[in-house]
Amino acid sequence: MTPSAILAVVGMQSEARLLPPGMPVVVSGGDPLRLPALLEAAPRHIRAVLSFGIAGGLDPELLCGDLVVATRVRGPGGAYAAHLGWSAALARACGARLGMVAGAPAVVGEVARKRALHAATGAMVVDLETEAAAAFAARRGLPFAALRAVADTAEEVLPGAAAVGLTSDGRPAAGRVALALLKRPRELPALLTVAKRSRMALDALGGAARRAGPGLGLAA
Fold this sequence. Notes:
35% of the residues lie in helices and 22% in strands.
């Protein structure tokens, strides 16, 4: 399938830049509440939906940069199945693990919350876009897949400043991060670690996209 027929759903512009040229993209800006409306405005000609980006690890065995392809998605709004053939092909092409992906309405940063979510859902990773993307694909009757790279692991804490790090169009919000650090300056070392881990995850994600090819594993 050509890239122009696959709608990619991401949180950040840095993720969108890793996708094949010509692939339409919806960028949430890290705001899952506005994402359903953005998806409804997506092009009508699309034939498949892909959630693509970094994620938080829930499975304690996962390391930064590990890749996960969804078999199912569970979130507050319900549960959704990924397209088995596409997901299997994508995982083979990328060298990713197959498993459950959790959706969340906000950043899951505390270790205790990660452990609780893993216990409740069995999910390997959590992110802010996959549930909305899966729900949209189900409403349209389109095949759906999710490819996610682990940034923060299950035993790493995300600082509060990381949750305000994006503008609405998915670009770095340096001003908001600076204000958050003025209130909580002790978070600076953790935030620098987050930035490093995110770059590692993006590198892994970009490599996976190149290995999977323009159609990202989806046959015509």
